[in-house]
């Protein structure tokens, strides 16, 4: 039987005192909270990171809660029928829970009040309703280090016209179908090119560079592990057939382990590219058991891909480029990692790596 949580949670803000006049301002201006809670008679340190605060309407706070054995994504807001800044965090996604303090079937919720002190703000709360999800199918898109090659290729093109390909532009076009991505670059930088002219220049460079692309660290280990344990895997990408074949030409053995690939660049059934969910939904439908989207886990590097996975109702592990601002899409991702090497299958109820 699961133990009872004696949820005396005291999260103490270690940043300067918030000057805002509302609970939304408090969380917007104080994004790191630290403290402890009791489970039975045992004391555990814990922390809460505020990812994003929507101040429109009733307001919403997106946060991550962690303790030594748990990592949980939360969404919360003010309880309208409760005074004194009573904030409830729920709608949880548990992506690591290695202790029976977090039962595998349930929900996770933190409810408490904001209290201002002479040194800042405290959040006194109680923990209830633990939860954990399991996954059976995977859709992988972040395997090769092609994004840096794309950056080189695009900069080579726009540099001929005295332009610079910035990370802001790259984020807008990552994961999209080729013509859409090309048009974003052309329109943003006001290039004297048609989409066809731009793509012709890009394809000439891709033929030289793509066959030399390296796998991302941890990709081969993950794919082989999932295959060895009978976890169906697929790829879903914004590439068209020709560029996909170029990118995978040096890694044919590894990509032969995938059940199928969805190439939204020229797949007739994929009507819209990322951030639309089409390619991920197609990837799920083409598994033999046609799993529910909630049973599919996506690995992504592009913000548009994270948004697409979220729209598809799938969980997503995001491995963004270091230059990307994580704050914009972190609340849509189940887990954010710096490298595939950090991924632990047991976080999602899967067999752990052999070593």
Could you give a short account of the major beta sheet?
Answer: 8 strands, antiparallel, barrel
Instruction: Write the CATH fold name of the largest domain.
Output: Rossmann fold
Query: How would you sum up the global shape?
Result: globular
Q: How much is the average pLDDT?
A: 79
Ends: how far apart?
A: 32 Å
The string of secondary-structure elements, in order, is: EHEEEEEEEEHHHHHEHHEHEHEE
Would you identify the CATH architecture of the largest domain?
A: 3-Layer(aba) Sandwich
Q: Give the CATH superfamily of the largest domain.
A: HAD superfamily/HAD-like
Please indicate the count of domains: 2
Q: Helix content range of the residues, please?
A: 25-40%
How are the strands of the largest sheet arranged? 1-2-3-4-5-6-7-8
Category by helix and strand content: alpha/beta
Q: Please compute the radius of gyration using only Cα atoms.
A: 22 Å
> Which band does the percent of strand residues land in?
25-35%
Separate helix tally? 10
Q: What oligomerization state is this entry in? A: single chain
Show unreliable segments.
1-20, 131-137
Number of DSSP strand runs: 14
Please, could you describe this protein's structure?
With 355 residues, the protein is α/β, with parallel strands linked by helices. The chain folds into two domains: 9-128; 135-355, 3-Layer(aba) Sandwich (Rossmann fold), CATH 3.40.50. It has helices at 23-29, 146-159, 167-173, 178-189, 195-209, 219-228, 241-248, 252-255, 278-285, 303-311, and strands spanning 9-13, 32-39, 42-54, 60-67, 70-78, 86-97, 109-116, 121-128, 137-140, 233-237, 260-263, 296-300, 315-318, 335-336. It has an eight-stranded antiparallel beta barrel with strand order 1-2-3-4-5-6-7-8. α4 (178-189) crosses α5 (195-209).
